[in-house]
Amino acid sequence: MSEDKQGMFGAHGTGDTSGYGGLVASAASAGSAQRPFGGYFDQVTDDLERAYPDFADAIERVVVDRGELTLHIKRERLVEVALILRDKLKFEMSMGVSGVHYPDDTNRELHAVYHLLSVTNNQRIRLEVSVPDIDPHIPSLVEVWAGSNWNERETFDMFGIIFDGHPGLTRILMPDDWQGHPQRKDYALGGIPVEYKGAVVPPPSDRRSYK
Amino acid sequence: MSTYADPYASSRETTEGTVFSVTGGDWDSLVTEIGQAKEERVVVNMGPQHPSTHGVLRLVLELEGETVTEVRCGIGYLHTGIEKNIEFRNWTQATTFVTRMDYLAPLFNEAAYCLGVEKLLGITNDVPEKANVIRVMMMEFNRISSHMVALGTGALELGALSPMIFCFREREKVLDIFEFISGLRMNMAYIRPGGVAQDLPTGTVEKILATVKDLRHSFKDNEKLLVGNSIWMKRTEGIGYLDLAGATTLGVTGPVIRATGLPLDLRKIQPYSGYENYKFDVVTADTCDVYGRFLIRINELEQSLRIIEQCAEKLKSLEGAPVMVADKKIAWPAQLAIGADGMGNSLSHIREIMGTSMESLIHHFKLVTEGFRVPAGQVYSAVESPRGELGAHVVSDGGTRPYRVHFREPSFNNLQSTSAMCEGSMVADIIGAVASIDPVMGGVDR
User: Fold this and answer.
1) pLDDT tens-digit profile of B377-410?
2) What is the CATH number of the domain that holds B295?
3) Total domain count for chain A?
4) Sheet with strand A59-65: strands edge to edge
5) How many angstroms away from the CA of B262 is the closest CA of chain A?
């Protein structure tokens, strides 16, 4: 998430003559937040710390960005913390799992992001688990929120994250015999060049573009 | 086993047992054959091409006689890779993709996505009031048109044909409004990051109020067809039971969870686009069944009309107000107008950039080809779509294109409850249960 970018155009080898090829833009990512977090975030983290004494060890980072709280959590602690969030902190509903692939985030390439909703307290928080590409295992949360079933299957289908303990981790959107995981950044979008009135329009992934 | 080959109902032996393929309308030989079989347990494949599965949904049913013992859903037949595709388009172009996910609720898809982008840009509070009012009004009209399809096709699938004809007639009136305002009846990409694509044409408020009056009148007729209808109630009462505990753990939202008595409506509990300024009630039921969900949809129509009337009232005093953020580095060409050949840049804007101002031309060109940059980070924005919580998890790496956008589709999450609702019920009740979830496969598969 914090890699530097060179040049202004996305596709390479297309003859960028603009002179902007040498520009370096550094991307800044949201750093860890310091107390007070603001809003109900202090109360949620305090409650979690009280209910879960290993908080400091389990939670790698607390990020508060754009009015949203993200807890970066170690994968081996995920199920324990999820159970406490559900039972003690009243996060009754999991709004799903969303995968994100950061190929440049070495040893933390694959992220699984859980969006939790507390109906009782009208609060939302987010859990984020990062795992390396070579060992893409995350414990399943189907036992905690049954609705995670299809969401985890989708994340497996699209990113290849293996949710250990899932009752039937199979592809859900892609055909069963599909090769590869389409939402990963190293998976090409595909597409063919189209000829129109003598000119060739390349597929979207090969078009010259800005970044 | 039959001694002759029936072209419509052939059978073959597999390791799992005899597989019957029924392709035509002649069921006689199949019934004879199954009657001879020793086993009571039959696995039936229903869909993906089936008039009662509410789209390209495949259901694998395990039956003991007429009782369903296991239901599994097969989805993915409409997967179009929208989430992948928009990683290769700029932030504004993505609205054109997301509007096509849940094709019955295009404005909600756009709203969830655009609210996410605006949150990332930090311009949530800069969106002009008129844009917010238009968004709310369009979303409520969209809720009506979506509920019309849910009620119409739901009734059709249970064998009531007339409501479908009436519901589609009312839906047409709403689509006319969409066409009048955005130029398109569906998939309009009308809501854009920062506001809406173009201002309302003259005479909108009068047209809206006339349509609201018309709809309110015809909804009354519609209600008479089904509410309290004894045949309809026999098909829906106590069917597709899902209580609060089940709905909560399955992440089910929308009319299905409101039918368990929980007033979970994001418009009330976590308002967006100024919903806190409108008076409306959250409709609930306590029956946890298909009939309760049906009643909720019927009664939500009136609440939507109430909100639209309040929008019309607000719009009267917002004549000529901006509909796009003031920041010209983000406000993607909002000077669109509907010309003879469809929607495009307004002539006055073209005259300015081509004839008088070189700087305007450069700015327009840069914004359209390059787009705007969105500061790195991730947000989750959710709206209450006709089917429940539609959330967008939007991730930016600071570039001109979305790094990753994931949609938390209510249809996808709600469809998971099919097994919980249907196992142990009769085959015919599956149709009613699935129709009451109202899954839109374009949203499920994205």
Assistant:
1) 899 999 999 999 999 999 998 888 899 999 999 9
2) 1.10.645.10
3) 2
4) A59-65, A68-73, A123-131, A110-118, A93-101
5) 9
